[in-house]
Amino acid sequence: MAQVRIPGRAAAPGIARGPWAELGRPALPAARPIAATEMADEAARLRNAAKAASRELRDLAASVRDAGHADEAAIFLAQAAIARDPDVVEAAVIAIERDRIDAIGAIASAARETAARIAALDDELLRGRATDVLDVADRIGRALAGISDGPLLAAPAIVIADDLPPSVTATLPRDRVLGIALEGSSPTAHAAILARAYGIPAIVSATGLLTAARAAGSGAELAIDGSTGEAIVEPDAAERARYDGLAADAAADRERDLGEADQPARTFDGVDVLVLANIGSPDDCADALRLGARGVGLFRTEFLFLERARPPSEQEQEGAYRRVIEAFAGLPVTIRLLDVGGDKQIPYLDQPREDNPFLGVRALRLADRRPDLFITQLRACYRAAAAGPVKVMAPMIADAADAATLRTLAHEARASLERDGLPIGEVDLGVMLEIPSAILVGDSYLAQLAFASLGTNDLLQYALAVDRGNPALDRYRDPLHPALLRLIREAVESSSRAGIELSVCGEMAGDPAAALALVGLGVRQLSMSAASLAAVRRAIRGAAAPALEDAANEALRGGTAAEARARFTALLESSTADRVVPAGG
C-alpha cells in the first residue's frame, strides 16, 4: 500500500513513528425493556453504580495527582462530580420510568442528551467536555453490565481512535504509548491535555485516519508530528528518514534551549528586555523555569473555575497561587483575574446565552452581577502575596470606569482581610489592554495603576473585526498589521506618560519576528509560552535596537501586515545572535 498523508491538528508536541494500535471497548448491551415492577430496582442499581463510579474516579484522581500531575487530577475530580450530578443521574432515573428501559440503557440515553447539549455550545473548550459525560456514563454502564477493563495496550504502539476518554488516556501504560492520533477530538479536549502533561506526542482531528490505518492492516507503521498535526500511514523510506531527522532535531533543539536558559534577552547594543512566561496552571512552572523565564507575565486562572459545580474556595485559590509564587522564588508573578462568561459558559454563573459572546458579559464585566467571584479571588491573591511579589490584572477593561471597578474590588478585598486579621502581602494592580478603547483613553486612568499588559490576541480581533475561530479570515490574523502596531505604539506612549510598566502577554510576544517589532516599538517586557522563550531571546540578542526602531517606524507607515512581516523576518534572518554578548550580560 502506498503511503497516505493525513492532515490533522497539533495537540501535543513531539515526533512518533511505529506500529499503530486501535483502542476500543466492548459495546454495552442494548437497552432492555423492563416491567413496571422492575423500575424501582433499576433506579436503585443505577444510583449505586453512579456512587461506585464516583469513588473510582476520585481514586484515579489521587493516582494522577500522586504521579505529579495535580492539575490534571482535577479532570477526574470533575468527572467524579458528573457521576453524582442530578442532571445526568436523575435524568437517567426519569428515562427508566418514562421509557421503561433498564439502567444501562437509561444512563446511556441521558448521557447522550446531556453531551449533545454541551457539544452545541460555541466554545471549543466546553464542547470538548461532552466526552467527559459520555466517559462517565460508560463507566457507570460497564459497572451495571459487569464488564471489566482488560489490557489496553500489549506492545509499544501509536494509539489511534476516534476519541479517547480521559480515563482511558490516564490509565494507558505510558512506557508502551509512542503517541496518540485521534480522528476526532480537539486540542482542548482532556485527552490532549493529558497527552501534553505526560509528554506524549499527539494529534487530533485527523479526518480519514482510521479508514487509512485499517486499510493498511493491523500493526502497519504510522508516523505523527505533534507540532504540525500531520500523520502518515505506511511512510516510505524517505518519510521515515525525514521523521527520524525531525525527532533528532527536536531533541537537539530542546538541549540547545535548555543550555541557553541563562542567556539574557539583550539586544547587541545593550537594550534589556524582560522575558516572562505565560502559564495555565502551577504545573507549568517547572518547564518555564528550566527554559529561563524571569517571572510570570500571565497566570491564567480559569483552570480553577472550569469543570466543577461551584466556584473554587478562597483557600483553594490561595494554594494554587502560592505554589506558583513559591516556585518563582522572588520573581514577579502576574495573576489574571477570572476571564470567563460569554463564550465560556460555566453552569454556576447562570449566564444568559448571548448572540455575540465576545462582545458580551465576560471577565470583569461579570462583577456587576457577581462581585463575590472577584472579591474572593482578590482576597486569595493578597493572601498568596505574603509569599512573594504579586501583580493582579483585570481583563476586558474598556475605560476608566472599569479600572475604577478593579480598584474598588481590590480595596474591599484587602479591607476585609485586614478586618479578619489575616496576613497579606502587597499586590500591584494593573489591566489588560485588549479593547482598542482602553488604549485610546489610557491617559484618563493608567496613572492610577501600577502596570498594563497588552493582550494582542483579542486586541487584533477587536481592532480588525476578525473572529478568532474563523479560518476564512486568516489573512487578517497577522499581529504585524499596521493598525495593531499603531495601537501598540499608542499604548507604549500612554504608559510612558503615566510612568507605569507595559508588557505584552498575547501570542504576538512568542513570535520571534513580531517580538522584534515589539522591541522596536518600545516594549521592554514580553510574556509567552515557555516553548517560545529561547527563540525569542535569540532573536533579541541578534538585533540592534536602532535597526528595530527604524523598522518599526517603517511598519507603522506601511499598509499591510505582509510588508511589516517581510521587514522583520529579514532582520531575523540576518540575526547576529551567535556573537558574543557584551560584558555584563
What helical percentage do the residues reach?
A: 40-55%
Fraction in beta strands:
5-15%
Number of helices: 21
Distance between the termini: 56 Å
CATH architecture of the largest domain: Alpha-Beta Barrel
Structural class: alpha/beta
CATH superfamily of the largest domain: Phosphoenolpyruvate-binding domains
Rounded to an integer, what's the Rg over CA atoms? 26 Å
CATH class designation of the largest domain: Alpha Beta
Approximate shape: globular
Number of domains: 3
CATH fold-type name of the largest domain: TIM Barrel
Strands, count: 16
| Oligomer type | single chain
The residue-averaged pLDDT reads: 87
Strand line-up of the largest beta sheet:
1-8-7-3-4-5-6-2
Quick overview:
This protein has 585 residues and is of the alpha/beta class. It has helices spanning 39-66, 70-83, 86-99, 103-119, 124-127, 130-145, 166-171, 190-198, 209-216, 237-259, 285-290, 314-327, 371-384, 400-420, 436-440, 456-464, 482-498, 512-521, 533-541, 545-557, 561-573; strands at 4-6, 9-12, 15-22, 157-161, 177-182, 202-204, 221-225, 230-233, 274-279, 296-300, 333-336, 390-394, 427-433, 451-454, 501-504, 525-528.
